[in-house]
Every structure is written in structure tokens, then in C-alpha cells.
Known about the structure:
Elements: H1 3-9, H2 15-21, H3 51-86, H4 92-98, E1 101-103, H5 121-126, E2 142-144, E3 149-150, E4 156-157, H6 179-190, H7 199-224, H8 231-244, H9 246-257, H10 270-281, H11 285-288, H12 292-316, H13 325-354, H14 381-392, H15 423-449
Antiparallel strand pairs: 1-2, 3-4
Amino acid sequence: MTDEAFQTHLNPFASALALHEEGIPVESTVPYFPSEDLFAADENDSSRLTPKELVYLPCLQQQLYMRLSSGARVSPLEVANILKQVQFVPSDAYLIRTEKVHPVEDREEAEPPEPSIEGSEEEDDEQVDPYGLTDDTSYTHIQHEVSAVADASGYLMRNGYHDDATKPPFQLPPLDGSTWATVGELARLEGFTAPWKGQTAAWLYDIGENLVSPNVESLLIDSFNLRDDSISTAVSCQTVIGVILSPLELVRTRLVVQTKNPYHQKYKGTFNCLRIIVEEEGLMSLYFGRHFVPTIVYHGIVAFFKFSTELIVENVFNVSAETQPLAFALCEFAVNVVQLGITMPLETIRRRLQCQIVSSTPGEKAFETVVERSVIPYTGMADCAWRIVTEEGGTRRQRGRKGSRKPKSWWSSWGLRGLYKGFKVRLVAQATLMILNAVLDGLEISEDVQ
């Protein structure tokens, strides 16, 4: 392997090599060998490592560890966000249309009827409770009119979304709380390691993106005669890389959403999930499933904002990072908020389409999920977006842990609420990152002045 080829192959991890070429001691990163004969490599022997190649190895190990640890720190928040995006939480209006239910007035608004003095025998038999003291529907204003239904084997079947009596024990309730509350609910149900489900697939995606990026970029530039300093070239390369590595995103989504119950768990790990998907759904389903179109659009928009945010701030807002650092940070934060407003619906749609299994030869185990999904599959990107708005948008009575009622909020009455689950957490993260960058920039300026 030549030096140039090796440098191109491991370009992201070339910091130690740069120190070595500048003459700076790198004993902390380069292993010490007492004999120079160990470096002597035969020209015909490609298995021996050259001194430059040995410089890369400790740096590569350090980068792998750093990416694994950083991914593990944010994994619980990402897992909670994925579960919220995938969970099907219908609105009250949708339940009224589809489940043969009728609305009941709120307890605070309705006055209790006066008890009858002359009670009949029928009222005594039915044990009428005029004040609703024993009513068990305090958490919702939807009351069912249908009774329990059993299948051919005699097992009870769920009548609707609020039928908690026959709800699978491995499923979470509606995730109405905060992100950390969702992490706690998941840990109590599936164990302490549950918030790190799918971490291996996420780590492989992160490493693969850094290793594949230089090769894909050089291949596209040479094949299509593209400019290497153009934003369109960078956006195209980043989009292609995202599509190439999209099977790992598909695997991670399914590993996160599936239940860890040993009797219902379908996928045992990252590579087992890849094998089962290929066997049941075909090799082409890894890329050209119903999630293919939103994957391209999502990665294209993310890449566009990644490489053009600075130009947008400088040209649209006429703000420079050197002369107006604070104003530049605020404008950059505004652009990032716009990016969230565009990409979060695409991410939600993509997650839900990734959880749909379209197979003519289904396996022995069904894909049982830790959150409830819609029983009606989505046919595509537009159908998924429309149904999320019409089925999950609008008012819905929220429930606490013990069935206590919570007041309605303006956020719950917004029709697009289902497309922006986790938006608040992302917004807080962007604001925190902006503040930290501003503090670090201020410290660097003060050091330069001293």
C-alpha cells in the first residue's frame, strides 16, 4: 500500500501523521520499537506496515473510542425520540370516527344529575352511580360502547386504542411526558440497557461515514468532472453517502422499536437483523423500500444546510463571524431552527416507513414493537404525512401514570403535532450548543488578548 493511497483511505485520522511530518515528537501516539529492522519492509511484501502506517493505528483507535463514547452518551435521548416518532397516538376525533365511541362531557363542566327519590328495581339492579364516583374513565373523555371480543381460540382481542385490558404487557403507554420520562419508562419496562438499543448500528454508521466519505467524494469528482470546492459537489457526495449507509439506519430503527421481550424479540443484533431483512424482504429492500424516497430527501436537505449555513448567514443576514460573532451565532441558530422545521417531519415519516415489513415470505416471529403502531400500513411518503396529520392531529386527552387527567395545551391542539415529536428537545440542544460555542469563542479571544 502506497503512502498516498493510505493517506486517502484514512484521511479523517491523519492528525498524528501531520505531527510526524512537521517534526513534532509523537512518542505518545507512536509505539516504540527498539530495532529499525522491524520497519524494513520488502517491496513485494504488502503485509508489512511502513512507519507512516504505524502512526495511523493509535490515532485510529483513539477516534473509534471517542466516537463510541460520544454516541453512547446521547443514545438514550435518540432512542426516546425514535420511539416517540414511531408511536401511533390517535386523536379523539379519529377514535370517534373509527371505534364506535362517543364523547362524554368533562367532569368539571358537567353537573351531576340529582338522584331520584323513587328508585325503581331496575336502577337498584344496575347500581346506578349518579355522581360518577366509581366511574373508571377519569383519564379520558372517550367512552366505548363495544364489549370485549375473542378470537377463534378464545383469546381476548383489542377493541381499540384505549383498550388497556388486552394491551400487550411489553408495550409502553402513550409517551406524553418529557424525553427523560420516556427514557425512565423504557428502562423500567425493558431494563437498564434498553436506552442503548441499536448502539452498534449507530456506531458503525458513524465510522463508515468517515471512512467512506473521502473515497466517494474522489470517485464522484473523477467520474462526473465535478468541482471539488463547490457546495453542490459536497451536498451530492453527502447525500450519496447517506443513501449508501441507509441500511444501518434501517437496522437501528428496527432494533430500537422492537421489544426486548425474549418471547417476541425478532432481531438479536445488528448483523442478525440484516440477515433476516434480506431473507424475508429481499436484498433490494435495504435500499429501495418505501423509505427510499424520504431517505434521499432527508439526507439531501441535511447536507444542504450543513454546507451552506455559513453562506446563508453571510449573504442573507449580512453578518460576519469575525466582526459580529454574537449576531452570527444568533443567525446561525435561526437557520438551524428552520432546518429542524423541515427535516423533523421527514425524519418521522422515514422512521415509520422503516418499521413496515413488506414481505411475501414472513418469518416465524412477527415484528412486535415496544410502542403501538398503526394497524393500517402506510403506502408512501405522502400518505404517511397526510395520515399523521389527520389521524393524530387535534385534541387528545392525555394520561398520567396513574390515570390522572392533565389539562389540554395549545401544542396538543395543533394539527401538525404528530410530525414534530421531539422538537422541543432538539431546540434546547441547539440553543445549548450555541451558548457553549459562544463561551468557547470568548475564552479564545481572551487568551489571544493576554
